[in-house]
Amino acid sequence: MNWRLLAALITAVGSGWACSCVSDETRCDQLRTAEVAFIGIVIEGSDGPGTSFGAHVARLRVDLVLRGIAPGTREVQVNPSIGTSCYIPLRSGERVMVLGRRSGRLIWTSGCDGTYVIRPDDHDTERLIKSFLTGPSLLFGRVLGSRDWTSSKPVADASVSVSGPASWSAKTDSDGRFSVGGLPPGRFVLSLSAPGWLPGRPERGWVPGRAFDLPGRGCVEARVVLWPDRGISGIVQREDGSPVTGVPVSAFAWWSGEETDVAAETAVTGQDGRFRITRLPDGVYSVKARTGLNTILFT
Prior knowledge:
Structural class: mainly beta
Distance between the termini: 20 Å
Number of domains: 3
CATH superfamily of the largest domain: Carboxypeptidase-like, regulatory domain
Number of helices: 2
Order of helices and strands: EEHEEEEEEHEEEEEEEEEEEEEEEE
Oligomer: single chain
């Protein structure tokens, strides 16, 4: 039997790293499991001329101990994975949250462990430290929108709400951030909406409606990425014009003149044969409908 796909090849118009230990853990997860955790000021940095992967061990003044360092310790030496693709530069004068592990007299860390530079306007870190040391627990996060496959930008004025043992709602700020403290421990559900944006699939991380457990002391960080509320619409029909129902229709992105092997998104035709594939970043796509053993490509 012959099939016909009535759709169009769409150009959706809208406006790396090599480290092998990349993790989806948040700062809260990493702080909770790190063998060593402290805030320090870099006295002697790790960078050196002629190399991108560090030159020597950094020396830090201990500002605040969270775990794994003896009380009264004033200075420590930190190896930020020098000579590897997981190297994270520690530069003189920076205030740093160091998460890592001990190896003899050295503390080893990397970008994978969650070590990061604390910016002057980074209020989340201060709240995180307080929740970890004394409580109460903290929920914070950031909402980003991705209009292409390689970058994302903050989504301001997104509506964020939390329901559970207590309720809370607010809007994200100009940098897409939100934060709420003082919630009791328990299981909560995060809800979010933003005009012009849709949530990603569950396997892509935090999505609205996801339940999470908030500890009595500590924190939970929500990283939410939204995708454009736009896409490709069409209809799958037989040659006699009758609709084909329940058929998967997928959009495949093109990169450098070649089609990718994995579908960007998939929709299923309804009773009238129509479909709408959403959450598609900017790009060029081909559309394929799969009916049994047959695949129909419209280009």
